Amino acid sequence: MMQTKLRSFSLMLAFVGMFFSASAQTFKSGDQHLHLGVGFVNWYYSSSYFGIVPPVTASYEIGIADLDGVGSIGVGPFVGFSTARTKKYDDFQGGKYWWRYSYATVGARGAFHFDILDDDRFDTYAGLMLGFTISNYSYESSGNVTGGYTYNADGGFFTRALFGGIRYKASEKLRFFGEVGYGYSLLNVGIDFKIK
Predict the structure, then answer these.
(1) Per-residue model confidence (pLDDT) at position 49
(2) What is the Cα–Cα distance from 130 to 29, expressed in whole angstroms?
(3) pLDDT exceeds cutoff 60 at 22
(4) How far, in Å, CA of 169 to CA of 35, rounded?
(5) 175, 28 contact by CB (below 8 A)
(6) Which of 33, 100, 106, 123 qualifies as a FRET site for 115, CA 20 to 30 Å off?
(7) Dihedral pair phi/psi, residue 124, rounded to 5°
(8) Which CATH number is 32's domain given?
(9) Measured between alpha carbons, how far is 99 from 189 in angstroms, rounded to an integer?
């Protein structure tokens, strides 16, 4: 499963790289954008889990530098959350049991914007996210003998993610985006508001 995800991500980035060429910048120093997204194919869960809350993300990006003839750089904060559980299995007491995981991430993203389509309606970029993820694991059962049982455990770990994306300019203030990535969710789509 993980190898398939990595292979898909590598192919997508390779496809983007094939078309790299410098052109007029659509994202530049001083620009500010708010992204709200929802993810598909979470890296934290195996195929035996199904999402209760899919990966939802929010990030804010500020353009900090223009690289003449090459592109521009943007940075900003990132937050994300998701929760999923297994299906309910039969237990020896005639009840059910299941596992549930939740992840909340706080971090920062940096992106390099390089326009490869020579069209000011599109903004292409790639970057890195670094952060910290707080995790919660719970086991629950509804056994008919014991009356049920619940166990919770919390933890945390440092997170890193690579991503590549494209934004489509629908109006002066509104954009739509799609991203592929490794480390958070394989595919992330959403809406983007240009604040400044």
Answers:
(1) 62
(2) 22
(3) no
(4) 13
(5) no
(6) 106
(7) -105, 145
(8) 2.40.160.20
(9) 28
Rounded to 5 degrees, φ, ψ at 93 are: -95, 0
Token pair, residue 143, equals 């056994």
Closest CA to 135 of 120, 115, 152, 113: 152
Q: What is the pLDDT of residue 118?
A: 80
* Domain span including residue 29: 2-194
The structure's pTM equals: 0.76
**Three-state DSSP class for residue 47:** coil
Q: What is the pLDDT of residue 137?
A: 85
What's the mean pLDDT in 99-125? Answer: 90
CA neighbours within 13 Å on the CB side: how many for 53? 13
Residue matched to tokens 């309910």? 88
The tokens describing 37, both together, are 């997204």
- Total number of domains constituting the chain: 1
DSSP 176-188: EEEEEEESSEEEE
